[in-house]
Amino acid sequence: MNDASSTGPASPSKTHVLLASLIGTTIEFFDFYIYATAAVLVFPSLFFPAGDPASSTLQSLATFALAFFARPIGSAVFGHFGDRVGRKATLVAALLTMGVSTVVIGLLPTYAQWGVAAPALLALCRFGQGLGLGGEWGGAVLLATENAPPGKRAWYGMFPQLGAPLGFLMATGAFLSLSAGLDEADFMAWGWRLPFLGSAVLVLLGLWIRLRLTETPAFQRVIDRQERVALPMRDVLVLHPRALLLGTVSALATFVLFYLMTVFALSWGTSRLGHAREDFLWMQMGGVLLFAATIPLSALYADRVGRRRMMLVASAAVMGFGFLFEPLFGGGGTVGTVAFLAIGLAIMGLTYGPLGTILAELFPAEVRYSGASLAFNLSGIFGASLAPYIATWLASHHGLGYVGLYLSVAGALSMLALLAVPRRLHD
Predict the structure, then answer these.
(1) Confidence of residue 28 (pLDDT cuts 50, 70, 90)
(2) Are 41 and 57 in contact (CB under 8 A)?
(3) Where are the transmembrane segments (predicted)?
(4) pTM of the shown model
(5) Average pLDDT over every residue of 119-133
């Protein structure tokens, strides 16, 4: 993936490339997470009929899950153009799709104003967010890894991965600031809309940076050799089904872990364990700092010993952490909750850092955008979309120990898939 570029426009600096890959995913994940936070704290009471709070929360989490089912469609649409037209133009379009959907959410009427049309429009915008992120992630990873020098592919590939913790910190920080500066009535009346509307500024910044990019060396080589395929997604499904299956299952534990540590933990901690919303968000932010810190550590280790081996170590850690789920989180105490979030999110960084690189390496350059994106987003369906819903149901009916078991099973499945990943992957 680090092929020499052919003649053409002057290539941007490595710093500019890495910044472009990082800022796009940061914006996309910021948009994604402000929805996740609002789906727990705001949307149940504003966008769904008054009644049983638990039922409203489950309905809100169902709209949260909708984006994950849209993401493979985004993979197909944006992946097609990413493998046919180019990485740059497709990344710009994906960022616009996500940004417009997010800003419109900030303008939506509530259930009290428009009735059932309000949650329907909310679901439509959430679907748009999923489409955008479905095309964003794969392109950002390829932008970084296809520009990487020899021996630093995982290091370059971790820059777009850093967008996840940075976006989460920005989203959580925005809601914490609003909670501190507004009373509850103002926050629920209009304050929650500000992060969604403010996303427009970030999107404009991201577009300005990305419009200055050129094509990656690997894709330029595909163009020069006339290796572009007519229907990239068809080739992924017909010619590379094993790579697609292994990539999807390899990422499963990563998705289950993250959305248990963020969406489910926030919902359960503030509703069943009695933590104040602001206190729990601060605890989560501390854990996400560890998430951000372990991403580069895992990338450095992955470049030394291999992406596959690093992912195996991380998946084993996910399995083990599942058995700590109830002992640490079940008591409801501050110390146990802080330890729970710190350990879980630190492990999250270990598994997330090399993930983008290994998924990209599973596919040849001519279908890499489509293949890596589809594997990542199919894993999002199976590992993340229903994770908060399943975990809430398991914890309510059987206890938190079963949520931990659910996580350990996901870790085991990812380990089995990684063991089947070929040692020699695509350059």
Answers:
(1) confident
(2) no
(3) 57-79, 91-114, 120-143, 155-178, 190-211, 243-268, 280-300, 312-332, 338-362, 374-394, 400-421
(4) 0.85
(5) 91
Relative orientation angle of helices 117-145 and 14-41, to the nearest 10 degrees: 160
Q: Which CATH class is domain 14-420?
A: mainly alpha
How far, in Å, CA of 381 to CA of 69, rounded? 6
Q: What's the residue count for the chain?
A: 427
Please state, rounded to an integer, the average pLDDT across all residues of the chain.
Answer: 90
Residue 211's pLDDT band (cuts 50, 70, 90): confident
CA–CA dist 60, 50 (Å, integer): 13
372-381: b or e for each residue (b if 16 or more CB lie within 10 Å)?
Answer: bbbbbbbbbb
Q: Which amino acid is at 268?
A: W
Identify which of 107, 105, 109, 112 has the alpha carbon closest to the alpha carbon of residue 50: 112
Q: For the chain, what are the domain ranges? A: 14-420
**Quick one: how far is CA 84 from the chain centroid?**
24
pLDDT at 8 over 70: no
Q: How confident is the model at residue 65 (pLDDT cuts 50, 70, 90)?
A: confident
Over residues 324-365, the pLDDT tens digits come to: 999 999 988 999 999 999 999 999 999 999 999 999 999 999
What are the structure tokens assigned to 28, written together?
Answer: 């996309």
CB contact burial 152-172 (16+ within 10 A = b; e otherwise): ebbbbbbbbbbbbbbbbbbbb
Which pLDDT score is estimated for 3? 43
